[in-house]
Amino acid sequence: MHVPDGFIDAPVSIAAGAVAVAGVAVALRGARRELDDRTAPLAGLTAAFIFAAQMLNFPVASGTSGHLLGGTLAAILVGPYTGVLCVSVVLLVQGLLFADGGLTALGVNIINMALVTVLVGYGVFRLLLRVLPRSRASVTAASFAAALVSVPAAAVAFTLIYAIGGTADVSVGKVAAAMVGVHVLIGIGEAVITAITVSSVLAVRPDLVHGARGVAKSLELHVEPARA
Amino acid sequence: MGAGHAHRLYLPGTSPVHRLPPQCKLVALLAFVLLVVATPAHRVWAFALYAALLAAVAVAARVPLATVARRVVIEVPFVAFALLMPFVANGPRTEVLGVALSQSGLWSAWNILAKGTLGVIASILLAATTEPRVLLLGVERLRMPQLITQIATFMLRYGDVVTAELGRMRTARAARGFEARDLRATGVLARSVGALFLRSYERGERVHLAMVSRGYDGRMPALADVGATGVQWAAAAALPAAAALVAAAAWMVP
User: Fold this and answer.
1) Do B51 and B126 have their domain in common?
2) Is B188's pLDDT higher than 80?
3) Nearest Cα to B29, choosing from A19, A5, A9?
4) Where exactly are the structural domains of chain A?
5) What is the annotated localization of this protein (chain A) (predicted)?
6) Residue B75: per-residue pLDDT
7) CATH of domain A10-212
8) Do B203 and A45 make contact, defined as CB atoms within 8 angstroms?
9) Shared domain check, B117 and B153
10) To probe the interface with A, which of B123, B191, B192 has the most A CB atoms within 10 Å?
11) How far is A223 from chain B (nearest CA, A)?
């Protein structure tokens, strides 16, 4: 999904870069509110976690495999602003140090994989939590649905950018069909992993799931008085 | 943790390219890639010249071409995508080896392959000649908010630690006879991801407390100054300036 250089023409790449800068600036202000002076170490370690988790390939069908994008997962675990920041930093480092994703396409990549996945994923998550009963099962179900929707949403965002500034002479309909089709499949894997990850974190440290604050009861320590 | 573990992509050296300040190299790279992207795909010779420019940089930086070639494989998924283009694109068709292919699709494939590959090679050269830590100092010099570069620094510093943690989990799973075969394996993998998040985040909490106890107040002390002189900016500008000539020629030559 990392778009390379040359896929989107120069003017649209620059415009996408400006949009990405604005989005990240908003996320910077919000992240300070979410994490105060702990922002740098905690967001940094979360970014390292996303970076590592993206290396974990899961089998999709015979022979093929997909990997986690992590936008929705990060948003639910550490909050939407910090989530955007973490994924953007992962993309920046991948572009600068690993040549993964073109530098001129960095804006496009940040819009698709950081801004859109987090906005759509976290939005769906919060909406569902408002409707569903307050329980751990609902948090898991909402995470599943949020991740499921967020990946094809990123594919749709890519198609829109492609429609404005794509360099290839392929009809937008074909690109949309191919991108959304493939990413619905990837979205299922993403959804399963996101839901199970969130529920396993919720079981151990419910206070660490930002999106479920106020839903899960904090764990209580029960101590039997020792028998003499 | 204290030892400076250099990154896999970085090739230590003392060439003129290695010695340039990181911010000069970053600006040069960005300008170069933008010019490449803005060049019309039909001017095939322009891309040959761009490749020659990058080869000159590689020679000056003493980065073996074989090393660059080995790292280019990162773009393989997009090569596959580009190769599909001639079959799905619109427009008049042409016969290649008895198969009717779209002409514009062939150009699109060439466009993506040429520009994508040049961009990847340019990034590889930057990463090979600049230490990651120094590169982030350069990013900060270019007015990137300090919080972003701090997050990136932490990500780099602990990336290897977290990845090693993931590796130990893989070993533990394998030792218990686990093998990822199909979708049913996803549950086990996802629980590993959950455990990995907890270990990463709790490490972040410990790191933060350790930093606070050493006087951290939200800013990192600058240990190395990476100021650039006019001469260094001029040296770094050689690549984009040459590329600008090529791009101008490509636009103007009929």
Assistant:
1) yes
2) yes
3) A5
4) 10-212
5) Cell membrane
6) 66
7) 1.10.1760.20
8) yes
9) no
10) B123
11) 25
